[in-house]
Every structure is written in structure tokens, then in C-alpha cells.
């Protein structure tokens, strides 16, 4: 049996996780080398593999200088690492000095060396010798495919994936019919006002409402929306229960349909391993949570799409971009790929430029309504995920 060695990096835990998923066999030991600052993050991470604690070794670099002074790292490792075992060492993670010291120490033991390249979804096995011409580096695709729940847990996030439904409530044809109304500008100004009124007055309601009550004003003193039937007719929308709208259907009419349209298009064009709607994520102990409109994972790569039917002002758009960028950087990690899909036009590409500067990809109305451009977006997503490796 062997010991699988990882330099644990709390900022980029995916490399260690993929390494263990690729090569762990029953009876193997695990070894984590980590700084003191990451100590609390390692234990729950190791628990993901359901391996007895007696089979896991932890080596802590307790003082900050121990993580970047080469001689101290080597001395500390030599005093803690038995020389009699067989080691498979992943050099991805941690500082460059730490990786150099780990490679130097284990080179004198019975060890094989690997580098997990998560961006390309591959693992490189290398032999460190003086012969640079024998082509003995081996590149192997990562076979394992993570779920959304695994990705969130790996990044220290709680979620509601298992506590509620995260799939569409209506068919692809339903969403496509409404999208066509926006694409071809078939909605009257009165219909747009109805959507706005419905969002303000009735979104978030907990009980089904008769269409008549919405039309003439409900007993709970909500304002009347006389054009509600006109909107339902324009959308070709038939409620599940005759002549009444459920809370989910009100959410759908006021924007949820667009999230479902995006869901269906990505499902068809990108073919992700898993895709979900309206997933809430939050850090343990935090009162704040974030809702991901559409989130999917393909070949261990996470994609998050913020969906907006309309954006009234540049200020509002900037707030959306900042929110998406912060979500990526602070919560989901820089390995996440973030997009904004919107039915707002961006004729001069000014909004796309703002998004790009914040590390977010914008797909405005001109892209969403053009099948060739949508195919290019899907091709880019598949390329990013390196699914073919």
C-alpha cells in the first residue's frame, strides 16, 4: 500500500481532492502537509473521504517562517516523515518554496511525483532526473466527476440542494414561447407594467391566488392588476389550477421563466453533469446567503449564471456585476466561471467591457437571440471545462 501526500491549500482544495479521488485505494494512508493557518480547514476536508483518523497523518508548519524558509521546511518534514513507506506526492498546492522542499525531501525516499492541473482537468506524473529527452512525463485525464454538492462542501459552503426542488416547473416550450415574446417585441407597454406590478405586489406570496382577485385587487389589500389576463394570453400561459396562480407561477411570470429558459438552453448546448435552479449557498455560522439563479458543473468545472430579464440603469447593472464578481472571488473561488445572461441590449459592448474587467462574461440580448452566437458561448464553456480530456 502507499501513502498519498498532499500539500493542503485552503484557497485551492480541488487539486488535493482530485488527486485522492484518482488514486486512493482501500488500505492507503493519507498525509496532509499544511500551514498552521489552514489547520482547521484540513480536518473536515479529510472527512469527505470517510477514512479512519488512524490512517491520516497531518504535518503542521506551526510558525509562519516555517512555510517559506527552505531549510526549516526540510528539517521539519524529515523529522516527521518515515523513510520506509511508499509515497505518491502531489506537488500542486501551497507556496513554491514549500513545493520545492517537499519534492526535495521525498526524492530521497521511495516516491512518485504528480502535479494536478485542475484547469485542464489532467494529472501529470513526472520523473525528476537529468534526462530531459526521454519523454517520461505522463499526462492522464482526471476520470472522476464531482457533483455540485461536493464542490460546495469542498469550499466550506452549506447549500439547499437536497431540501427543495431545483428543476423547472414548466416545459422548455413554455419558456421558449415567453422568450419569443421578448425577442420579437410582442409585448405591449401595458403587459410590461403588469409584470412590474405583479413582481411588486404579489411576488413572495405564500398561497395560491385567484386570477380574479389579482385582476380586481385581493382581500389582503393588494392593488388591482386589470391587465393580468392579457399577460397570461400573451405568454400563452395556462395555470396548473384553473383560474388561479400559485406562488411558484407568480415567480415564474415575473422572471423565473427566463431562468428556466437559460437552464434548458445550457442543458441542451453544454450537456453538464449536473445543473440546478435557484440554489442557496451560505457559510456555516453566517446569516447571509446567496441564491444562484442557474448553476452547473461540467468536468469538475463550476459555472454560475445570473439571469436578468431587464436592467433599468447602468448603476443597477454595475451593482449586479459587483455582486457576481464578489460571489466568485470571496465565496465560490476563482476557479468558478461567472456569467450574466440578460435581455438588455448592449449595442456598443460597453456593458460587456465592464463585466470583463470584473472577470464576468456578459451574454446580452443580441447573443441570446442569435443561435450562432449562443453556440459559440456553449463551445467556450465546453472548452473551459476540458471535457474531452
Describe this protein's structure.
The protein is an alpha/beta fold and 389 residues long. It is 41% helix and 21% strand. It has helices spanning 14-23, 39-47, 70-80, 96-107, 148-154, 172-183, 189-202, 211-216, 228-235, 247-269, 314-332, 350-357, 365-368, 371-385; strands spanning 3-7, 29-35, 56-61, 86-90, 110-117, 122-126, 138-141, 158-159, 209-210, 244-245, 274-282, 290-298, 301-308, 337-342, 360-363. The strands form 3 sheets. It has a 7-stranded mixed beta sheet with strand order 3-2-1-4-5-6-7, with helices on both faces. The model has no long low-confidence stretch (mean pLDDT 88).
List descriptors.
389 residues; alpha/beta; seven-stranded mixed beta sheet; six-stranded mixed beta sheet; 14 helices; 15 strands; 21% strand; elongated
Distance N to C terminus: 28 Å
* Radius of gyration over C-alpha positions, nearest whole angstrom: 26 Å
Beta-strand content estimate: 15-25%
**Which stretches are poorly predicted, pLDDT < 50 over at least 5 residues?**
none
Provide the succession of SSEs: EHEHEHEHEEEHEHHEHHEHEEEHEHEHH
Largest sheet: 7 strands, mixed
How many helices? The count is 14
Q: Report strand order across the widest sheet.
A: 3-2-1-4-5-6-7
Which structural category fits the helices and strands?
Answer: alpha/beta
Helical coverage, percent range: 40-55%
Number of E-state strands: 15
What does the overall shape look like? elongated
Q: Mean of the pLDDT scores?
A: 88
Task: Please write out the topology.
Layout (H helix, E strand, L loop, with lengths): L2 E5 L6 H10 L5 E7 L3 H9 L8 E6 L8 H11 L5 E5 L5 H12 L2 E8 L4 E5 L11 E4 L6 H7 L3 E2 L12 H12 L5 H14 L6 E2 H6 L11 H8 L8 E2 L1 H23 L4 E9 L7 E9 L2 E8 L5 H19 L4 E6 L7 H8 L2 E4 L1 H4 L2 H15 L4
Parallel strand pairs: 1-2, 1-4, 2-3, 4-5, 13-14, 14-15
Antiparallel strand pairs: 5-6, 6-7, 8-11, 9-10, 11-12, 12-13
Helix pairs in contact: 3-4, 6-10, 7-9, 7-10
Amino acid at each position: 500500500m502507499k501513502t498519498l501526500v498532499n500539500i493542503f491549500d485552503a484557497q485551492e482544495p480541488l487539486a488535493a481532492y482530485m488527486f485522492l479521488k484518482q488514486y486512493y485505494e482501500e488500505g492507503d494512508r493519507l498525509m496532509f502537509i499544511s500551514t498552521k493557518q489552514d489547520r482547521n480547514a484540513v480536518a473536515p476536508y479529510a472527512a469527505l473521504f470517510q477514512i479512519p483518523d488512524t490512517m491520516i497523518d497531518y504535518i503542521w508548519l506551526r510558525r509562519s517562517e516555517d512555510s517559506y524558509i527552505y531549510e526549516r521546511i526540510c528539517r521539519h518534514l524529515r523529522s516527521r516523515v518515515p523513510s520506509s513507506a511508499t509515497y505518491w506526492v502531489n506537488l500542486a498546492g501551497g507556496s513554491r518554496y514549500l513545493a520545492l522542499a517537499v519534492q526535495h525531501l521525498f526524492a530521497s525516499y521511495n516516491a512518485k511525483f504528480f502535479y494536478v492541473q485542475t484547469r485542464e482537468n489532467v494529472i501529470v506524473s513526472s520523473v525528476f532526473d537529468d534526462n530531459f529527452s526521454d519523454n517520461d512525463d505522463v499526462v492522464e485525464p482526471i476520470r472522476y466527476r464531482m457533483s455540485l454538492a461536493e464542490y460546495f462542501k469542498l469550499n466550506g459552503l452549506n447549500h439547499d440542494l437536497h431540501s427543495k426542488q431545483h428543476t423547472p416547473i414548466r416545459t422548455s416550450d413554455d419558456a421558449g414561447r415567453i422568450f419569443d415574446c421578448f425577442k420579437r417585441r410582442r409585448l405591449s407597454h401595458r403587459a410590461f407594467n403588469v409584470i412590474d406590478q405583479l413582481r411588486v405586489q404579489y411576488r413572495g406570496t405564500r398561497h395560491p391566488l385567484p386570477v380574479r382577485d389579482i385582476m380586481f385587487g385581493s382581500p389582503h389589500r393588494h392593488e388591482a392588476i386589470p391587465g393580468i389576463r392579457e399577460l397570461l394570453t400573451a405568454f400563452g400561459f395556462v395555470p396548473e389550477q384553473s383560474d388561479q396562480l400559485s406562488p411558484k407561477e407568480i415567480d415564474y411570470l415575473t422572471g423565473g421563466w427566463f431562468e428556466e429558459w437559460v437552464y434548458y438552453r445550457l442543458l441542451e448546448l453544454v450537456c453538464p453533469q449536473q445543473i440546478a435552479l435557484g440554489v442557496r449557498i451560505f457559510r456555516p455560522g453566517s446569516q447571509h446567503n446567496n441564491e444562484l439563479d442557474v448553476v452547473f458543473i461540467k468536468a469538475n468545472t463550476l459555472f454560475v449564471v445570473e439571469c436578468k430579464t431587464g436592467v433599468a440603469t447602468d448603476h443597477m447593472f454595475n451593482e449586479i456585476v459587483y455582486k457576481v464578481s464578489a460571489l466568485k472571488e470571496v465565496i465560490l473561488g476563482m476557479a468558478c466561471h461567472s456569467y450574466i445572461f440578460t435581455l438588455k441590449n448592449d449595442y456598443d459592448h460597453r456593458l460587456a467591457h465592464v463585466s470583463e474587467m470584473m472577470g464576468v462574461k456578459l451574454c446580452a440580448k443580441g447573443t441570446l437571440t442569435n443561435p450562432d452566437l449562443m453556440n459559440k458561448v456553449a463551445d467556450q464553456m465546453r472548452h473551459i471545462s476540458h471535457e474531452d480530456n
